[in-house]
Design goal:
The structure is a single chain. This protein has four helices and 20 strands. With about 400 residues, the protein is α+β, with helices and mostly antiparallel strands. The protein has two domains: about 100 residues; about 290 residues, Neuraminidase. A four-stranded antiparallel sheet has the order 1-20-19-18, covered by helices on one side. A four-stranded antiparallel sheet has the order 2-3-4-5. A four-stranded antiparallel sheet has the order 6-7-8-9, with no helix packed on it. A hairpin with a 7-residue loop joins strand 11 and strand 12. The protein binds 2-acetamido-2-deoxy-beta-D-glucopyranose (2 copies). One 2-acetamido-2-deoxy-beta-D-glucopyranose binds next to loops. InterPro entries: Gal_Oxase/kelch_b-propeller, Olfac-like_dom, Olfactomedin-like_domain. Belongs to the OLFML3 family.
Length: about 400
């Protein structure tokens, strides 16, 4: 009897245990089902939310498209202004570059005046430590279009001065002076300029502004170089260029009988005479007295030449090329004999008109100021040492 009780108890115990397991499993299954339905709900909700979001995005994108369109029209409207500001910034940037040549020159002038005077009598290569030559043209900026097809524009090439001078035309007597490049680009035509009236007309585009003076070419029977003080508006000096039988120096720019240039070493005259008719001649001038210091007959032909400039005692002559819209430095003449034509860099200039009517180098900024069909253009130059060729 006692054994049966034990057995029943055991059986009950087993059944109870079994039942508990089933209950447990059922609870778990229910819980899992619950969770599955919850997931299902959530997924559906997510899906619909996603759909809504997508719709919102589509309509927002449409709005964005519309706004973009409006923005583009606005941008087109201010495009010219942005362009101008950019040009000015780019231009100002170029003004802050290092100027090793000029620094050396300044030191020379400060510390070694007597030495320089002695060296002037000696071989020309000893005159200055300036030995830069062009490596390439890094950038070009069209600043403005003002004036006629021919003319010249420049800053004072002897020092960092903000003023800009416009010599419009090839036979005029009125210089337009702008206080800054910004004024020049901002000005409607010449409206923001101050006018300086010269006592006589200039001929061609062969003038320079150097150390607060305008140097210009005036022609009667002889070629006259006139030095005009811009501070007190008076002619300081004038001198007949002591060479006879002049012919226009560049084949393609007949108005320019003689060209003047400034480089790190001072004032130069670029000219041609009937005696050496096929080639360009070069002379170093004393900017104070207008005396000729030395003269060279170069091997650079006049034919097809449109303009020239001097950098560190090297003459670069720019010629018309067979490719339309392009000119090229095709002949160099180094008074120090360090750069030959074979070593001359390949330098191209885009152009719109038949020829550049002037190309003026500014040693303070290492920029070329060009006048091409009434467009005032800046070319930014990259230099290298002559010896590094
Ligand atoms: C520039 O010069 C040209 C020709 O010499 C002349 O026709 C034109 O009126 C001048 N323009 C200005 C703005 O002085
Ligand atoms: C102008 O100034 C220069 C020096 O800067 C002087 O030599 C000249 O006599 C002055 N001319 C006049 C007319 O005042």
């Amino acid at each position: 009897m006692r054994g049966l009780v034990v057995l029943v108890t055991l059986a009950c115990f087993a059944t109870a245990q079994h039942q508990a397991l089933i209950d447990y499993l059922e609870r778990r299954l229910l819980a899992i089902e619950d969770r599955i339905s919850l997931w299902h709900e959530q997924t559906t909700r997510y899906a619909s939310e996603l759909r809504e979001l997508k719709q919102q995005m589509v309509s927002q994108l449409e709005n964005l498209d519309k706004e973009k369109e409006i923005l583009r029209t606005n941008l087109d409207g201010v495009g010219t202004r942005v362009d101008r500001v950019e040009r000015e910034l780019d231009y100002l940037e170029t003004q802050n570059g290092a100027q090793p040549c000029v620094d050396v020159d300044d030191k020379l002038i400060e510390q070694q005046v007597t030495l320089v005077q002695e060296k002037q009598k000696a071989k020309y290569s000893k005159l200055s430590d300036c030995s830069d030559m062009i490596s390439s043209v890094k950038a070009m900026k069209i600043l403005k279009r003002v004036g006629g097809p021919k003319g010249m524009w420049t800053k004072d090439t002897s020092r960092v001065s903000a003023k800009v001078y416009i010599f419009n035309g090839t036979d005029e007597d009125t210089i337009h002076e702008f206080a800054t490049v910004q004024d020049f680009t901002r000005s409607l035509g010449m409206s923001l300029s101050k006018t300086l009236r010269l006592p006589s007309s200039w001929r061609g585009t062969g003038h320079v502004v150097y150390n607060n003076h305008a140097y210009y070419i005036n022609q009667a029977d002889d070629i006259m170089v006139v030095k005009y003080d811009m501070k007190n508006s008076s002619v300081t000096d004038s001198a007949v260029f002591p060479v006879q039988d002049h012919v226009p120096v560049y084949g393609l720019t007949p108005e320019t009988l003689m060209d003047l240039a400034v480089d790190e070493e001072g004032l130069w005259a670029i000219y041609a005479t009937r005696q050496n008719e096929r080639h360009i001649s070069l002379a170093k001038m004393d900017a104070n007295s207008l005396d000729i210091e030395q003269m060279w007959d170069t091997n650079c032909p006049r034919e097809n030449a449109e303009a020239a400039f001097v950098i560190c005692g090297t003459l670069y002559v720019v010629y018309n090329t067979k490719q339309p819209g392009r000119s090229r430095v095709q002949c160099v003449y180094d008074v120090n004999g360090m750069v030959t034509n074979e070593e001359a860099p390949l330098i191209y200039f885009p152009k719109r008109y038949g020829a550049h009517s002037s190309l003026k180098y500014n040693p303070q900024e290492q920029l070329l100021y060009a006048w091409d069909d009434g467009y005032q253009i800046l070319y930014k130059l990259v230099m290298k040492k002559k010896l590094e060729i």
